[in-house]
């Protein structure tokens, strides 16, 4: 089932989206060499609770995971890219960290992810990979709007990622979001233009381009049963925003309150 939100529900989504953006960027500002991933999880817990919101992850238990996730934020380091379970690990200079956060407030969820490098050592390949996911996300948002097909978004993302030289995994991608975190429709990170569901005002989508540096194959961490890593040990990057389809285009919901709202038409 694809959920179409009312104008009042989209207003709630704006509030939740700003919260997600604020938390992610507040945590990013605090991350440094020596920060423990478990500290990041605690920060997220405290910020979510102080906002009167709830985590979408603590009791999250889909078929592909090993029991409830049990944490408040996903922390993926280096070869980890999705569902990174916080663990007792202190960040090192040059680590590539992805933070992925989904919360629910006033009955509506929002989901976003950012990738960035810790410390002063910035490998040019890491910088380029992060940029490719950000560019793919921006390109898809730029064309989103009423009447656009899901395949158009997927094709746009895929063109940017493959054009930058990356292989594309089709198992995990973007998704609908609203009263729950993961909903139909699935938004693959590559596809054929002109195909699929036609976007409508009130639809919320979490678009999330992600890549691995030299493979399209994932493995699940055997220790936690959750963290998805590149099969080759290659580094990874992931960028995500929740958007609302509007009458005139698309509105990015998951940017910090300090940043002006961005729309495309």
UniProtKB/TrEMBL annotation:
**Which cofactors does it use?**
Co(2+); Zn(2+); Mn(2+); Fe(2+)
Detail which positions bind substrate: 83, 182
Please give the name of this protein: Methionine aminopeptidase
The entry's free-text remark on the cofactor is: Binds 2 divalent metal cations per subunit. Has a high-affinity and a low affinity metal-binding site. The true nature of the physiological cofactor is under debate. The enzyme is active with cobalt, zinc, manganese or divalent iron ions. Most likely, methionine aminopeptidases function as mononuclear Fe(2+)-metalloproteases under physiological conditions, and the catalytically relevant metal-binding site has been assigned to the histidine-containing high-affinity site.
Record text on subunit structure and interactions: Monomer.
Q: To which species is this protein native? A: Leucobacter chromiireducens subsp. chromiireducens
The UniProt record lists the Peptidase M24 domain at 13-247
Alphabetized InterPro entries for the sequence: Creatinase/aminopeptidase-like, Pept_M24, Pept_M24_MAP, Pept_M24A_MAP1
Report the sequence similarity comment from the record: Belongs to the peptidase M24A family. Methionine aminopeptidase type 1 subfamily.
Which residues are noted in the entry as a divalent metal cation 1-binding?
Answer: 100, 111, 240
Q: Where does a divalent metal cation 2 bind?
A: 111, 175, 208, 240
Q: What does this protein do?
A: Removes the N-terminal methionine from nascent proteins. The N-terminal methionine is often cleaved when the second residue in the primary sequence is small and uncharged (Met-Ala-, Cys, Gly, Pro, Ser, Thr, or Val). Requires deformylation of the N(alpha)-formylated initiator methionine before it can be hydrolyzed.
Q: Which EC numbers characterise this protein's activity in its record?
A: 3.4.11.18
Checking NCBIfam families in the record gives: met_pdase_I
Decide whether keyword Hydrolase is in the record.
yes
């Amino acid at each position: 089932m694809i959920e179409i939100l009312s104008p009042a529900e989209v207003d709630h989504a704006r509030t939740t989206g700003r919260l997600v953006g604020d938390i992610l960027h507040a945590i990013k500002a605090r991350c440094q060499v020596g920060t423990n991933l478990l500290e990041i999880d605690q920060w997220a817990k405290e910020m979510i609770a102080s906002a009167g919101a709830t985590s979408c992850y603590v009791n999250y238990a889909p078929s592909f995971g090993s029991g409830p996730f049990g944490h408040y934020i996903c922390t993926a380091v280096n070869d980890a890219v999705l569902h990174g379970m916080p663990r007792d690990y202190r960040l090192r200079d040059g680590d590539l960290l992805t933070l992925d956060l989904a919360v629910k407030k006033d009955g509506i969820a929002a989901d976003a992810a950012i990738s960035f490098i810790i410390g002063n050592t910035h490998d040019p390949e890491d910088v380029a990979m992060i940029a490719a996911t950000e560019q793919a996300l921006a390109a898809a948002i730029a064309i989103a709007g009423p009447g656009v097909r899901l395949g158009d978004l997927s094709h746009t993302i895929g063109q940017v990622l493959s054009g930058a030289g990356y292989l594309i995994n089709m198992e995990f991608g973007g998704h609908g979001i609203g009263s729950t975190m993961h909903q139909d429709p699935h938004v693959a990170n590559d596809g054929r233009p002109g195909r699929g569901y036609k976007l409508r005002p009130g639809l919320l989508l979490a678009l999330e381009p992600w890549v691995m540096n030299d493979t399209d194959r994932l493995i699940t961490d055997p220790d936690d049963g959750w963290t998805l890593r590149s099969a080759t040990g290659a580094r990874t990057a992931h960028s995500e925003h929740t958007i609302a389809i509007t009458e005139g285009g698309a509105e990015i919901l998951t940017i910090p309150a300090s940043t002006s709202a961005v729309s495309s038409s």
